[in-house]
Amino acid sequence: QVQLVESGGGLVQAGGSLRLSCAASGSIRRLHAWSWYRQAPGKQRELVATITSLGSTNLADSVKGRFSISEDNTKNTVYLQMNSLQPEDTAIYFCNFRPLPGEGSWGQGTQVTVSS
Question: Which own/partner contact pairs does 40-45 have at CB distance under 8 Å and 24+ positions apart?
Fold first, then answer.
């Protein structure tokens, strides 16, 4: 079982930046994938970014060029650097840790609000 604790959300003006963190504790398998999802009010949860322990990354088209995902294996932590934030980025952001193969675990979510 993996426990995830997110941090870094908040209120920012359009054009600003935030960095989200998600730290894992528990049974951390060497082969794994981290993902960030977000869910805006009235919308379905959507995948924002993924990074695997094999080094591959993937970003949603809507955030390419503005967001980046990285991992610090020494701290069992994943980061989502968000630049040039826009009001449409407002959502609750959730991290997900998934051992490969296996079922994923979810963080509690952190609110990101971008004002225009």
Answer: 40/88, 40/90, 40/91, 40/92, 43/91, 45/94
Alpha carbons 9 and 66: distance in angstroms, whole number:
16
Query: At which residue do the structure tokens 């094999």 appear?
Result: 54
pLDDT tens-digit series, residues 26-49: 888 889 999 999 999 999 999 999
**CA dihedral over 33, 23, 85, 112, signed as positive or negative:** positive
Three-state helix/strand/coil letters over the chain: CEEEEEECCEEEECCCCEEEEEEEEECCCCCEEEEEEEECCCCCCEEEEEEECCCCEEECCCCCCCEEEEEECCCCEEEEEECCCCHHHCEEEEEEEEECCCCCEECCCEEEEEEC
Which among 3, 21, 44 is positioned nearest to 112, based on CA atoms? 21
Mean pLDDT of 100-107: 92
Q: Cα–chain-centroid distance for residue 85? A: 14
